[in-house]
Write a structure and sequence with these properties.
Shape: globular
Strand content: 25-35%
Structural class: mainly beta
Mean pLDDT: 82
Radius of gyration: 13 Å
Order of helices and strands: EEEHEE
Strand order of the largest sheet: 1-5-4
Number of helices: 1
Helix content: 10-25%
């Protein structure tokens, strides 16, 4: 694994092109995740699903954050896909 810092603003899920993307957990909704995906309220806990396909923008953000516990999330001050994921080494 590379030990590097990064900053990325994910925008498109492309679930058909990447069917291998699977979530380990369904995260609870976050206030700034309103992306039109109609995610259901999962309470205050992650739900272990072990194999949920990544099909929504919220799923994609969670999937990418599952890659490392060091990945942080930040809301950028503009409209549209404005959630950045980053890691600072």
């Amino acid at each position: 694994h590379l030990n590097i810092s990064f900053f990325v603003v994910p925008c498109c899920t492309y679930s058909r092109e990447f069917p291998h993307r699977r979530l380990k957990y369904i995260p609870p909704p976050r206030p700034h995740d309103s992306d039109g995906d109609n995610d259901k309220d999962n309470g205050n806990m992650n739900i272990n699903v072990n194999d949920k396909r990544v099909t929504t923008y919220s799923d994609l953000l969670a999937y990418l954050q599952e890659k490392s516990p060091d990945i942080q999330r930040h809301l950028l001050p503009f409209e549209g896909k404005n959630v950045c994921l980053y890691r600072i080494v």
